[in-house]
Design goal:
alpha/beta, Aspartate Aminotransferase, domain 1, Aspartate Aminotransferase, domain 2, 7-stranded mixed sheet, 4-stranded mixed sheet, 18% strand, globular, binds pyridoxal-5'-phosphate
């Protein structure tokens, strides 16, 4: 497949669907009027037959891109199985067992897993596991963090006002991301129940934690016996060229939250935190049998096709080429990234938004982050041809957007 824009997006089929959703559904966070029909490799086809190159992986949730054989065969296998979604914390299934074995093979030893629906719920249960263990009330989190929108997780999210305004909070202590000084100034830690962190802040535009900052947090967690929760919902599942972003820092978390690329949410924790039966559960947790089977197939495929190496290699090429583009265009003020998790910071949100919008019209899908950043997160299967194609469109859009602004 290649980018192929046949009618100016949104075409008439897309406009009809967008208008129904806009009229009937809660206002949400749609970036542009893309109505997805299907996809292949790193490309998505919309309902008007336009083909786009996807540099978003649906916010990191399609690590194998679209229509990967490993995923299609699971879908075929289940096409005649009407018991595809069950109450997975109340009834057993083989998919539950298999995904547990798979995910526990790629996290620290002595971990257990609890499956749930979403990333926010994976965080929600991570903090519940910590509260139950420590019996303390205050969570320590970072400014700029995004941990989800359910009320518990939302307390520790602190990226955009709109997420939080008027919603009540749990007890929290917030520090500036990457501020070792603020960590040094923390005096009384006796009521801290857990520290929760994204080592690469996702929603805020791929801000990367410094090694001294993570080292210090890790040290505090170890010395004070405060559980360290690492939120890998966006940065995990191979996105950074390793299974988990924390592995770039030589530390291990006590508790983790995972979702997106895994297809289901997962709270993972060291066995010493194991709460009593019933402390955490849910109807659908562990019950999306097709999603769980696909999650296991994704882990297998990332291993079999050496996609961690590919994420690292293609990420290095993309990072270098974006840095070269930055040197030619002073509207880009920063380029940063690890693996296929790259953030581009622009001078203004207007130019950032123009570039995202104009790239969409030209068939390249990009994602905003923070107030002025673009997130680049293509599927882990991306190759050099797609990089060339995407960067050609990106640079051309950049030139034209600057000329017309
Ligand atoms: C780091 C992180 N944590 C939690 C969440 C919440 O996940 P979900 O949208 O599946 O609830 C997200 C979603 O973007 C995320 O990036």
């Amino acid at each position: 497949m290649r980018i192929d824009i046949r009618v100016e997006p949104p075409g008439s089929n897309a406009r009809k669907i967008v208008s129904i959703i806009d009229n009937l559904c809660a206002k949400s966070t749609f970036t542009y009027p893309l109505v997805i029909h299907d996809g292949e490799g790193c490309y998505i086809r919309d309902v008007d037959d336009n083909i786009y190159l996807d540099f978003t992986s649906n916010i990191c949730s399609t690590p194998l891109g679209y229509s990967h054989q490993a995923v299609i065969s699971v879908l075929k296998e289940y096409s005649n199985n009407g018991a595809h979604k069950i109450a997975g914390q109340d009834f057993y299934s083989i998919e539950h067992a298999k995904l547990a074995e798979k995910i526990l093979s790629i996290v620290p030893n002595n971990f257990k897993v609890f499956f749930i629906n979403s990333g926010a719920e994976a965080v929600e249960n991570a903090i519940k596991v910590a509260y139950r263990y420590t019996k303390k009330s205050v969570g320590l989190s970072c400014i700029g963090a995004f941990h989800g929108r359910t009320l518990g997780a939302l307390t520790f999210t602190y990226s955009k006002q709109v997420h939080k305004k008027d919603y009540p909070e749990l007890p929290v202590k917030r520090i500036r991301f990457n501020s070792v000084e603020e960590l040094d100034e923390l005096k009384d830690l006796s009521n801290i129940s857990f520290i929760i962190i994204e080592v690469i802040q996702g929603e805020s535009g791929y801000n990367i934690a410094s090694k001294p900052f993570i080292d210090k947090i890790h040290k505090i967690s170890k010395e004070q016996g405060i559980p360290l929760i690492v939120d890998e919902v966006q940065s995990g599942m191979g996105r950074t060229g390793r299974w988990w972003a924390y592995q770039h820092y030589g530390i291990e978390p006590d508790i983790m939250s995972v979702a997106k690329g895994l297809q289901v949410g997962a709270t993972l924790y060291n066995k010493r935190f194991d709460p009593e039966a019933g402390a955490i559960s849910s109807t659908w947790g562990g019950g999306h049998r097709i999603d769980m089977a696909i999650g296991a197939a994704i882990i297998d495929t990332i291993e079999r096709e050496h996609l961690l190496d590919n994420a690292r290699d293609m990420g290095a090429i993309l990072l270098k080429r974006f840095k070269e583009i930055k040197d030619r265009f002073d509207v880009i003020v920063d380029v940063r990234g690890i693996g296929l998790m790259i953030g581009l910071e622009f001078v203004t949100s207007k130019i950032r938004d123009d570039i995202i919008h104009n790239s969409f019209k030209r068939g390249l899908l990009l994602l905003p982050g923070g107030s002025k950043a673009i997130r680049i997160a293509p599927p882990l299967i991306i190759g050099k041809d797609e990089i060339d194609e995407g960067l050609y469109v990106f640079e051309d859009v950049l030139k034209r957007s600057i000329l017309s602004s």
